[in-house]
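User: Can you recover a sequence for this backbone? Please restate the input before giving your answer.

Assistant: Of course. Working from this structure:
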């Protein structure tokens, strides 16, 4: 069930961004947040990032990268 909860949160994140007409958000930062919140889901930050990127692009949301110092 932990993976399902993570999947729902990913979908909610994308839906909320779309509803707010938020044209972009920091996918890597959000992926890190979600992966840390669901450690038992068996998904790495990279896995969550990939899924968020795919779902965001499908919803028409532009992705931004966290700036490196």
């Amino acid at each position: 069930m932990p993976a399902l909860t993570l999947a729902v949160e990913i979908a909610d994140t994308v839906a909320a961004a779309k509803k707010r007409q938020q044209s972009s958000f920091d996918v890597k930062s959000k992926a890190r947040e979600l992966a840390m919140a669901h450690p038992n889901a068996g998904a790495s930050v990279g896995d969550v990032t990939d899924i968020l990127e795919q779902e965001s692009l499908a919803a028409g949301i532009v992705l931004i990268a966290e700036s490196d110092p």
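That completes the design. The first strand starts at residue 24 and ends at 26.
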